[in-house]
Design brief:
Length: 642
């Protein structure tokens, strides 16, 4: 063992009394592992339930998790004649890993992890800082017993022999009865809850382990609507889009350059925000104030986050039910904004400081038809922050390319992806452009605000550069946030208090997914606030109207939110399946519509009688199904030879 002496650690032997206690504990563990590990995993299941579901102590984990665990333990008792303790230990390790992964995934995405997330496990190392920042100290308690057992094994005077059979073999008849009861309990937990729409509720009612097993073995066949039956008229009918005789601002930006700027983790509350008299985002706030501003605009991304936002905006399709769009749909021939602009004679390019392989972007860019992409190879390693060059480098080097593109006879479409204000928002001190109020220092919310202040500063430099190079006056600029930055499920008490101070009320789910949208044209936009709701799927058709481009023949699930006022916005991933935003509220289902919850868009997150209707709930589900059917049946893209 290691014992501290005068501030240092030295290797010492166990005393006789310590050795006896250790050996007695190990002997008890070896002779009665069934009960020992049952208690350990029950405690861990309670930790997971509190962290994910916020439930108080109840019988739920005992009734849902323990039967599944006992199934495995019974199999060990039946078939492990040797190394039984090792198998118990490995089971403990596996179940602990599942609980820990569920906790961490919920902290980031607000949903329950399942085996599909393994497809993106290679992305974890790239965002390891984000992952580490989500770990709360008490979460690590879930590994305490594993560490202690390992230390006991390695440091004990007499090492425990994992190969030995347990001396207290459980009676086979007892194990058989317990196995049957456990199987029955698992079926009772799983089958009545299979139809639940809300994955969180499903996992809570089934049990986390039962839910994970259910997702693996419940293979659902694709029940797609035939392509011939998916028409724009059908989509518009579901969305209740009204045909209009004339459209406002139709063709107002015809022939202009198109520049789309996607702001990393930028939420709407930052627009106009002042802290103790200090503006947080003066440049973006001024642009929103002086041009077309859509404050009731919402994210629609999923597991792919930023790359999903790129996909939705450029295709006007919804993300897939599982996985990132760049992984699921990048092999398809996708109708897209770049292809639409190329049909009008435009050059197209996209700019992102990370490597193009991240989230499979290289394949996405081919699928949606960008002429050129500029990634880490172009931006280099100068002034890197997190996993790419800083926003200052992004904008400076992008300006060089835009100047060259602007000198060509054809207009251009450029999409620019900002990155520096990325979770966990711990930007280098030399990037600080504001002094935080003392109460915000050292908080997650404070770090977020400071990072977004820097992102705003860099954007201001870019806007100035566009004007200096003569690009500004002949361009339409579209700015929006890619996804949320402050998940409710990740915030500590202090952070929630700061958000309540900012909003003047409790920070809600509707606030969390609310991102801004601005449309800026030097000769046609003016200070206008559009109150109607919109989402990222609406960017393409809105731009098409402004550019005077006919979308006839191109399937799209969004709408022109300048001219259409009614909207339904299906949500995926950060909220339970079946969630959607309507004109009146954010709806989150329970098992279905009847036991769902309405969150008013105005914001206090409480229950109320009005809001989204069951008809709108069914509309949202049908739209998602049609998008899945359409994208899933598109022809595969012909791959270029490597």
């Amino acid at each position: 063992m290691y014992r501290q002496t005068n501030g240092t650690y030295s290797s010492v032997s166990l005393s006789r009394e310590e050795a006896n206690v250790l050996l007695n504990a190990l002997q008890s563990l070896r002779t009665k592992p069934f009960g020992f590990f049952t208690v350990l995993l029950l405690l861990k299941s309670y930790l997971a339930y509190v962290a994910i579901f916020g439930t108080e102590l109840s019988l739920a984990p005992l009734l849902t998790e323990i039967p599944f665990i006992w199934l495995i333990f019974c199999l060990i008792e039946w078939f492990a004649s040797k190394r039984k303790l090792l198998y118990y230990f490995l089971t403990n390790l596996l179940v602990t890993a599942i609980f820990f992964a569920a906790i961490m995934y919920y902290q980031y995405y607000g949903v329950i992890v399942d085996y599909h997330a393994l497809e993106q496990v290679n992305q974890v190392t790239a965002v390891k800082n984000s992952v580490f920042s989500l770990i709360k100290p008490y979460y690590l308690l879930i590994f305490t017993d594993i560490v202690v057992l390992a230390v006991f094994y390695l440091r004990g005077r007499k090492k425990l022999d994992w190969r030995l059979p347990s001396s207290g073999r459980e009676r086979r008849g007892y194990m058989t009865a317990l196995f049957v009861v456990s199987v029955v309990m698992c079926f009772v937990n799983i089958f009545p809850n299979r139809a639940s729409m809300n994955e969180l509720k499903k996992a809570e009612d089934m049990g986390i382990l039962n839910y994970e097993a259910y997702t693996i073995f419940s293979k659902k066949t694709q029940d797609w609507t035939p392509l011939a039956d998916i028409t724009q008229e059908k989509i518009d009918g579901i969305k209740q889009i009204q045909p209009l005789q004339s459209l406002e601002y139709q063709g107002a930006a015809k022939g202009k350059n198109l520049i789309i700027i996607q702001m990393e983790s930028f939420q709407n509350f930052l627009v106009g925000l002042e802290l103790d008299g200090q503006q947080v985002t003066p440049n973006i706030s001024r642009l929103m104030k002086e041009n077309f501003y859509f404050p009731n605009f919402y994210q629609q991304v999923g597991q792919g986050n930023t790359s999903d936002a790129e996909f939705i905006v450029n295709t006007s399709l919804y993300i897939p039910q599982r996985g990132a769009a760049t992984g699921v749909y990048a092999g398809k021939e996708l109708p897209s904004l770049p292809k639409l602009m190329k049909s009008q004679g435009y050059n197209t390019a996209t700019f992102h400081t990370n490597v193009v392989e991240f989230w499979n972007r290289g394949e996405l860019y081919k699928a949606i038809g960008f002429d050129h992409y500029y990634d880490a190879k172009y931006f280099g390693e100068e002034d890197t922050v997190f996993f790419g060059a800083s926003d200052e480098v992004l904008y400076r080097k992008t300006l060089d390319q835009l100047k060259e593109m602007d000198q060509q006879p054809e207009p251009f479409y450029a999409q620019i992806i900002s990155m520096t204000a990325h979770h966990p928002y711990s930007i280098p001190e030399e990037k600080y452009k504001m002094k935080l109020p003392e109460r915000f220092e050292g908080t997650f919310v404070g770090d977020y605000i400071r990072a977004q202040n820097y992102a705003d500063y860099a954007l201001g430099e870019f806007i100035a550069g566009l004007k200096e190079r003569g690009i500004w006056d002949n361009s339409i600029i579209v700015i929006y946030g890619d996804h949320l930055g402050l998940p409710i499920y990740s915030l500590e008490r202090k952070d929630k208090e700061l958000m309540e101070e900012i909003y003047g009320r409790e920070y809600s789910y509707t606030d969390m997914i609310n991102i801004p949208l601005a449309v800026i044209g030097a000769d046609f936009t003016h200070p206008t606030v559009f109150p109607q709701i919109g989402g990222q799927v609406d960017v393409l058709p809105t731009i098409a109207n402004l550019m005077g481009i006919d979308l006839a023949g191109q399937i799209h699930f969004g709408q022109d939110i300048i001219n259409q006022t009614y909207n339904v916005l299906p949500q995926r991933y950060y909220l339970p399946s079946g969630s959607f935003v309507s004109e009146k509220s954010l709806f989150m289902p329970g098992s279905g519509y009847e036991d769902g919850t309405q969150y008013p868009l105005a914001g206090d997150g409480g229950h109320h009688s009005g809001g989204a209707t069951e008809k709108e709930y069914n509309q949202a589900l049908e739209l998602l199904h049609l998008s899945n059917s359409y994208a899933g049946q598109l022809p595969d893209r012909v791959r270029e030879p490597q």
